[in-house]
Amino acid sequence: MHEMAIAEGILDIALDHARTHAAQRIERIHLLLGELSGVETEALSLAFSSVIRGTIAENAALTWERVPFTGRCHDCGRERRIRPADYLCPDCGGGMEIIGGREMRVDYIEME
Ligand SMILES: [Zn+2]
C-alpha cells in the first residue's frame, strides 16, 4: 500500500529528527500535502497509527495542510492557482510554471 510506505518515510524522518535533538517523545508531525500529491489522508492516518506503535512517536498527532496547485506565469509573473484543465495564466493566457501543489513533506515536528 502506497500510504504505508509514506507513513514509514514520515516516521523515519521524525525519529531521525528526535535523535538529533535528543527528544524523548514526538508529539506532533505536521505535513504539507499538495493538492496534486495524490495522498489519501484517511489511509495515511490509518497507516501512520500502525507504524508508530512501540516507538517514541506512539502518541504523536499527525496533522497536515493542503497546498493549493499554484503556478507563476512566464509572461506576466503573477502567481495564481492553476486550473488543471489548461495550465494557462488566468490573466494573460501565458504558460504557468508550477510552484506548488505537488509536495508531500514534513513541515515541522513537535517533540519533548
Ligand atoms: Zn500571465
TrEMBL record:
Family named by the database record: Belongs to the HypA/HybF family.
Pfam families attached here? Answer: HypA (PF01155)
What GO biological process terms does the UniProt entry carry, in alphabetical order? protein maturation
What keywords tag this UniProt record?
Metal-binding, Nickel, Zinc
Keyword Signal (UniProt): no
Residues annotated as binding Ni(2+): 2
What residues bind Zn(2+), as annotated? 73, 76, 89, 92
Q: Does the keyword Zinc apply?
A: yes
Q: Its Gene Ontology molecular function terms?
A: nickel cation binding; zinc ion binding
Protein name, per record: Hydrogenase maturation factor HypA
Q: What does this protein do?
A: Involved in the maturation of [NiFe] hydrogenases. Required for nickel insertion into the metal center of the hydrogenase.
Q: Which HAMAP family match?
A: HypA_HybF (MF_00213)
